[in-house]
Design a protein that fits this description.
Blueprint lengths: L5 H11 L4 E2 L2 E2 L6 H16 L3 E4 L5 E4 L6 E7 L12 H16 L8 E6 L10 H6 L5 H6 L9 H7 L15 E9 L4 H4 L4 E7 L1 E10 L3 E2 L11 H19 L5 E10 L5 E2 L2 E10 L2 H22 L2 E9 L3 E2 L2 H15 L3 E6 L4 H5 L5 E6 L15 H21 L2
Helix pairs in contact: 1-3, 3-12, 8-9, 10-12
Length: about 400
């Protein structure tokens, strides 16, 4: 039976947070000096655990068992959002390292191989889920050539060169090498905390459908144009938001969410009636039928808003993901482990955010575990989780990993 070392786990989590430390959080964007230092440190730790390890051509840090038996891959992403939290991604990476160590130290687990992994750029500095997309063969060289940093504009190829990765081969999924993949993550919401649960067993990862909506009115003088003849694109954008807020709750699922992330009007001057407005809008759910209902409703509301305001409208879906179910046997293993360590304090739940597990699940069985986020805070430097929940989550993950490997789940 693997027993994690709680002091070592917490020490390494805090050590990892020193790479790009910012206030009580981390600023460790993908391929920066701090990010690459953290990845090289991981290689050294994997090797000290008795594993072979390397950094591939897009920055994935991959540990390999030296034996022939198929291993269980465990990890998450190593980089952070800008000026963000110390646990988002990093927790799952260090959990993978600690589980590998605990298996190496447990006499009855030494033949059960763990392959820790740290993916690159899940956080979309260049390409969302870049590392796991590359690993499963869903990222072309042309996409890498075209990608630039969302904040600085730096070409991805230049960043890879500066990171010392130019000319390094990418690593790809190999059938039969792994029995599956486990990922642990902070919840990034307040459901676990608000329901006094300590472990969340992820049932599915939601899909994100994103849209660009444009209204075209007539730009004119704000003081001399009569209200009766105006075609104000800003009003059209506002009316659409109100219509969405009224319609969507009636067709939503129990955990549906939708967000208007950006509204811009042009020319954006106080004394000019906006002639144009652009909206970036998204919704998320784990159910395809609900996603289709949202899509149909949104298109209907855009058409009706256009007719009501006299502003021409266009709608473009710019992203369409698919919900990804986590493996049922892996969910069961996580639930058995949670029941052993925190009976009646765990629950099954969907993930409202994207994670590398949804990409890896295209090629192998995958499971995912959540621990509570204090106050539901994430993507901010105040993000935190109680030490006791970090230790509990890692032990539950280790027990589930043993169950999966020992019983051939």
């Amino acid at each position: 039976m693997p027993r994690i070392n709680a002091d070592r786990l917490l020490t390494d989590l805090r050590k990892f947070a020193q790479f790009g430390a910012y206030k009580t959080g981390v600023h460790r964007p993908t391929y920066t000096v701090e990010d690459m230092e953290s990845r090289r440190w991981l290689v050294s730790q994997y090797e000290k655990t008795g594993l072979a390890a390397h950094i591939d051509g897009v920055g994935n840090v991959i540990g390999h068992s030296r034996g022939d038996r198929p291993s269980l891959m465990i990890g998450s992403h190593a980089e952070s959002q800008n000026h963000a939290g110390w646990l988002d991604g990093a927790m799952g990476v260090i959990f993978g390292l600690e589980v590998a160590r605990s298996f190496a130290e447990a006499p009855d687990c030494t033949g059960l191989p763990i392959a820790p992994v740290a993916w690159a750029d899940e956080e979309s500095h260049y390409i969302a889920l870049l590392g796991s997309r590359s690993y499963v063969g869903d990222l072309s060289d042309a996409e890498i050539d075209a990608a630039t940093n969302a904040y600085t504009g730096q070409p991805l190829r230049d960043a890879l060169k500066e990171a010392g990765l130019a000319g390094t081969s990418r690593s790809f999924f190999e059938p039969g090498r792994h029995v599956g993949y486990l990922e642990a993550h902070i919840e990034q919401g307040d459901f676990l905390e608000s329901t006094s649960r300590r472990i969340g067993i992820v049932t599915s990862i939601v899909a994100i459908w994103q849209y660009r909506i444009v209204f075209e009115g007539i730009q004119n003088h704000a003081g001399t144009t009569r209200m009766a003849i105006r075609k104000d694109a800003g009003v059209a954008a506002a009316r659409l938001q109100c219509a969405i807020a009224e319609r969507f709750p009636d067709i939503a699922g129990p955990r549906s969410v939708w967000t208007t992330g950006r509204v811009t009007v042009s020319p954006g001057a106080a004394s000019i009636i906006p002639g144009g407005a652009e909206i970036l809008f998204q919704f998320r759910d784990e159910d395809e039928a609900t996603l289709e209902r949202f899509d149909a409703a949104l298109r209907d509301l855009v058409e009706k808003t256009s007719a009501r305001t006299g502003c021409a409208a266009s709608i473009e879906r710019i992203a369409k993901g698919h919900p990804r179910r986590m493996d049922e046997a892996f969910q069961d293993a996580l639930e058995r482990a949670a029941e052993r360590h925190c009976a009646d304090s765990h629950t099954r739940m969907p993930s409202g955010a994207s994670h590398d597990a949804q990409l890896v699940a295209r090629k192998m069985r995958a499971g995912m575990l959540f621990v509570p986020s204090i106050g539901g805070i994430s993507h901010h430097w105040t993000e935190n989780t109680e030490d006791a929940d970090l230790v509990l989550g890692c032990q539950v993950l280790a027990d589930a990993a043993e169950d999966i490997l020992r019983n051939g789940l």
